[in-house]
Fold this sequence. Notes:
alpha+beta; 6-stranded mixed sheet; Rossmann fold
Amino acid sequence: MDPSRIRNFCIIAHIDHGKSTLADRLIQSSGAVSDREMKEQLLDSMDLERERGITIKASAVTLDVDLDGQPYMFNLIDTPGHVDFHYEVSRALAACEGALLVVDATQGVQAQTVANAYAAVGADLHIIPVVNKIDLPGAMPEDTAIEVEHVLGIDTGHVQFVSAKSGIGIAELMRAIAKVLPPPTGSASEPLQGLVFDAIYDEYRGVICYVRVVNGTLRKGQKILLMGRQRHYYVTELGKLRPQMMPVDTLSVGEVGYVVANIKTLKDVTVGDTITDVNAPAATALPGYQPPQQMVFCDFYPAGGEDYSELREALEKLSLNDSSFTFEPEHSEALGFGFRCGFLGLLHMDIVQERLERECGVEVVQTAPSVTYEVLMTDGSVQRIDAAGDLPAPDKVEEIREPLVEVQMIVPADCVGNIMKLAEQRRGEYNRTEYLSTQRVMLTYMFPFNEILYDFYDKLKSLTRGYGTMDYHLSGYRSGELVKLDILVGGKAVDALSVIVHRSNAERRGRRVLQRLKEEIDRHLFEVVLQAAIGTKVIARESIKPLRKNVTAKCYGGDVTRKRKLLEKQKEGKKRMKTVGRVDIPQEAFMTVLEPEE
């Protein structure tokens, strides 16, 4: 295909503004899929995506389109909308020249609309604003277009009004894509450069790389070099996603497809790597991607205790398809051997855990999530820690710095007072207020990330009757009055339950965890003492009463000394049991620190 006839673009939007439905209509209009094979959310191939109704993985598809007798090739990438999957969006932007910014005509500009629009502008993409759902009763298409121009500063001269569900305006949108978006730059005569923008693992064919050819031509049978890993392979199969895999002989400038090259080990492929020809290599690699910045950390342990190697293998397979999470070996006295994993957010953590259990068949126990802290040592050095157990001894610590995030919340104007009260409770610092319209306000606050980690989004939704949205990004670190809260069970600290908290919240948090643990841990033959402590100072305590056996039941009447002798014997046994007995902590107890506060 002549590169001037190729258009590479992605669809970006806030959650539920109609990205996947719009992708369905574009695929259907191009004739890539017959009406019999067509189904809703066609590109969302994971069961999890269909069940939750959200896009988790960016999906690519190649469409052959005929517009007024002129053939075009559209390479489309459908992206997720949730803030936790923003890294998927940034990877899609790097493989495109244009973007369709979809905005719901009934809801207007939302928090993720703003974040995705800025990301697209930062990647120097041409943007076509698309106002969707214009056929709904409460739709305000013209007002939404004005809001896009006012809030985002995007020229709405090429704005398209569509209904992705009913197909209104789809033909006009396809013409606008061909007319407004630029063709790919690059030359077929230059040495081969192909960007690996995603990869999946196949049991029979090994690693399958999704590639965007920037320069040169990629051919079947060609000997290629992965520039990052410096490994050589022969291309055994090339193809395009239409949306099923269809083999082809070559991929030329601007085209998107998949490469199979007998890559057997997962570690040999890095998303963002550059493919080139071994015999005529490119002088430099493509810029690739910025490594993702993990925001949330927690530990995964195999539920059975003996499936450690299976868990490692499952994490390796998953990390190829989702390179935005990290994992490294970890050991806990309470839970044995496992992995410390880093994620982009709580939803991302939840999705990874569910994919491990569904796709890989591995049951895992998860500890309380935490964020990364900076610790200034007395010798002047700075350490980064992502678990309370890694915190150095208090005499070596000068100060602990917590991560700050800038949060943008778009809320109804009549809910501003409630949201400000919530922000104050979570140690938020007010920055500014912007009125998007007479009914909607954008509030910007600085929060310690730990304060919004657990249930802040749920509270925001509750206080705004479901209309509030938020987006956040890391702003830096700041010193705070932070302490390590240890949970002791039977006098022994359980490292998996330790957390770093603000001193003002320590006692309340400690009491809540102890009350939940008291409900979860079964009674033993001896008294189990639960304590919350900061250093050597105990700040809260609960006791689980022992099971009591009536050893004097068989004694009736007679001398009281017989009963006393039996009770003394039981007392000695309980004392010995307390010193050698082991407290069994169920898996549910480790989830108590995750549960939101009443």
